[in-house]
Amino acid sequence: MRLIYFSRDYSVHDHRFLARLAQTGHSIGFLTLEQRTAVQCTQPLPPGIEWLSWAGGRGPVHWQDGWRLLRSLRQVIQSFQPDLIQAGPIQTAAFLTALSGFRPLVSTSWGYDLLIDAQRGPAWRTATRFTLRRSAAMVGDCATIRQLAVSYGMDPDKIVTFPWGVDLQHFTPGAAADLRAQLGWESEEFVVISTRGWSPIYGIEELARGFAAAARELPQLRLLMLGSGPQAALVHEIFQQAGVRDRVHFPGQVSQEDLPHYYRAADLYLSASHSDGSSISLLEAFACGRPALVSDIPGNREWVTPGKQGWWFQTGRAAKLTQGLLEAAAQRNQLAEMGRNARQTAEARADWDTNFPHLLDAYQLALQS
């Protein structure tokens, strides 16, 4: 089979999909709509994947670029002669593919496209409905995404739902001593980790303010704050003004190879995200045997049962996050059992090796339509 995999950019998640697709024996062409430095994967394209040249993929794109990109996409399709195209997000890469008239299309929801983008206004809703009604199949990572897709006109019998999952051989439980020792953090310190981008969608301001308030009450509290983003100046200002800057470690962007060491160095995973499907970073933390304190949103509720793998706190409320951190620290003796529950949940539902074949099921569904 000849397949075009069309995505917004080349992220770590795209690399994971492409690496597995390269092992299927199919001929795979790869198209990117944009090139965003903040999310660009540093790993080379997997062997066997052909990076297709076209008018897109060279920088940011705008709605006025649509007709130029559409003409170029049709040229790529005519040249590559795919049997199937997998494309997402819904309102951009998949929408452009639907406009091209190509069939069969397997639309891929990346979560935010249905959770947020589809609600931006009439044009976005129209693009969502247009794309889904012309999709031979759709893949999404959780029940919340499935329900939203159906509400926008997707045939429920054509939806394949599975969490993207994680590599359970790479993300594993283990000792936390080495990294903590390097930072001068002793065993009595209570360490939480955040791996989300520093932007409003991830509630990063609430996370910073909530942690700062908790750290003033609990001197042993520490934060591993990975990544970066557009709210960096605000984040540093919040910690500086609260006088807790020395309790936060900022390692920047951490490679996939080193990421498990950071999860293991923490006692608790923390996310204040306002929107998520099945969060990969949450699943990585689970796979490393770490319980979670997460915002109370539908995607998180599908994974975290309060008191079993962690807790929820009210979305967008820094004070509730503070309260959750203090209560989690007070129940520190329960975290080991919660961590075991988290790992068991990852093994049962988030194994990428087990979940990936569901994508191929979506292909078969589309080809048979």
Walk me through the structure.
- With 369 residues, the protein is α/β, with parallel strands linked by helices.
- It has 2 domains: 2-165 and 352-367, Rossmann fold, CATH 3.40.50.2000; 177-349, Rossmann fold, CATH 3.40.50.
- Helix content is 42%, strand content 16%.
- It has a 7-stranded parallel beta sheet with strand order 3-2-1-4-5-6-7, with helices on both faces. The protein has a 6-stranded parallel beta sheet with strand order 10-9-8-11-12-13, with helices on both faces.
- Helix 3 (90-100) crosses helix 5 (122-133) and helix 8 crosses helix 13 (318-330).
- The two termini are 16 Å apart.
- The mean pLDDT is 95.
Can you give me a brief rundown of this structure?
It is built from 16 helices and 13 strands. It is α/β, with parallel strands linked by helices and 369 residues long.
Looking at this protein, list some descriptive labels.
alpha/beta; 7-stranded parallel sheet; 16 helices; 369 residues; elongated; 2 domains; Rossmann fold
